Amino acid sequence: ALAILKHGEGDARAAAVRWLGDHAPHAFPREHEALLTDADLAVRTTATVVLRASADLDLVQAARLALRDMVTSPELGVRHAGLRAAAGIANPTLAPRLLPFLDDPDPEAALLVLLALAALAHGLLAPA
User: Fold this and answer.
1) Coil, strand or helix: which one is 40?
2) Rounded to whole angstroms, how far apart are CA atoms 48 and 70?
3) Residue 47 has what pLDDT?
4) Share above pLDDT 90 across residues of the chain, in percent, rounded to a whole number
5) Among the four 18, 42, 49, 58, which has the fewest Cβ within 10 Å?
């Protein structure tokens, strides 16, 4: 998976990040922080979700900032990817930050916010 991450392309690299996160999270030392700004959006999005669960608090913080930048991006594709990542993270602390995007004029963004909120465990978010 590390070889694919270094020399693979697009979806294969994103899959390698996902696999490493599931099976060898210790394989992400600090130099993998660059994945959070990878030119490939799928790699960047997957790295945001995976590194958010890292044991390294600096990587977690970098992933939080990367997610914020994605969700607030003026580019719709990047914003959509960030909202999908938020759904993948399914952390209740994200909910208050996502609520303003329910009023996003882009209907896809509003739908993705609803999906991210629906990913939270039942009872962690008030229905209102």
Assistant:
1) coil
2) 10
3) 93
4) 39
5) 58
Task: Identify the burial level of 36 via C-beta atoms within 10 angstroms of its C-beta, where 0-12 means exposed, 13-18 middle and 19 or more buried.
Answer: buried
- HSE, CB side, 13 Å, CA atoms: give it for residue 72: 8
* CB-based contacts of 11-19 (< 8 A; 24+ apart in sequence): 11/42, 13/38, 13/40, 13/42, 13/43, 14/40, 14/42, 14/43, 14/45, 14/46, 17/43, 17/46, 17/47, 17/50, 18/46, 18/50
Query: Residues 38-90: pLDDT tens digits?
Result: 999 999 999 999 998 888 899 999 999 999 999 999 999 999 999 989 888 87
Residue 91: partners with Cβ closer than 8 Å, 6 or more residues away: 52, 120
HEC string of 48-95 equals HHHHCCCCCHHHHHHHHHHHHHHHCCCCHHHHHHHHHHHHHHCCHHHH
How much is the pTM? 0.82
